[in-house]
Amino acid sequence: MVTRRTFLAATTAAAVVQSGVKAVASQTQNDATVNKPVVLSTWRHGLDANAAAWKVLNNGGRALDAVEAGVRESESDPKVASVGYGGLPDRDGNVTLDACIMDEAGDCGSVAFLKQIKNPISVARRVMEKTPHVMLAGEGALEFAVAQGFPKEDLLTDDSRAAWERWKENPPKEFKPEVNVENHDTIGMVAIDSHGNLSGACTTSGLAWKLHGRVGDSPIIGAGLYVDNEIGAASATGVGEAVIRAVGSFLVVELMRQGHSPQEACRLGTERVISKNPNWRDLQVGFIAIDKQGRIGGYCIQPGFDYAVYDSQKGNQLNRSESRVKKS
Prior knowledge:
9 helices; globular; 5-stranded mixed sheet
């Protein structure tokens, strides 16, 4: 005999099963629409970096390994004057490097004010994996790198030395970064792998002719880079002090958490940087971002910021970012 109680129990159970089927179907559909793998990175030298990262991603590799391999390409290239070997020095002629890396689990590592090591991103990863710390700086970072087997090298190339010598002939009385001149730049890279996991890396030699000891946003988790595997990842480029004031990359990821697309999150993040920096018309800041669906975005203050994107659909392409200031 079917009582009211057994009828309700059976109906409820059927509804739960049906709901579960719908949820599974919806999840399967969502997974099918994810564009993966994808890697994107800042500036024109991001094309070569993306190509190195894609070798890892295209073989089913981990996003963390891909972003490390990608930015190492720029760090090792002496023609890239804003990152690693060949980076332009501070006003005293010292090449000092900053980098950070973050994986899908939220683990992260960072080095700041590091000298004589060509690939600071790999040292940052060792900090993440081999120590209980997040950041090492200065002499301590160098000692750790050497202990980990990284060789000391002279990072000041002939071209960078010549540029520094020319700058010393007529140094400005007041330091002011130049907008869109790639002597103050970063390579930031974020990626989603074929497993749907996100990671990011950020590395730089910092502002050319900076005060000795200056550190920008690039090694600071939340400023130069942030990854949340539930939501997305973002990286910043440009004048680091302006990014730090807005905790820029964390902000962009949180805006995606609120439901904004990566493109809109980058735009809103840039607007926040503008609101925190009264001199915003005299500086450049840009963001790139990717979400869990593999959607991407990029936005900046001044025109002229490019970012590179590599996926299986369109290959490796350079995109011109939208900007708050329009080209006249």
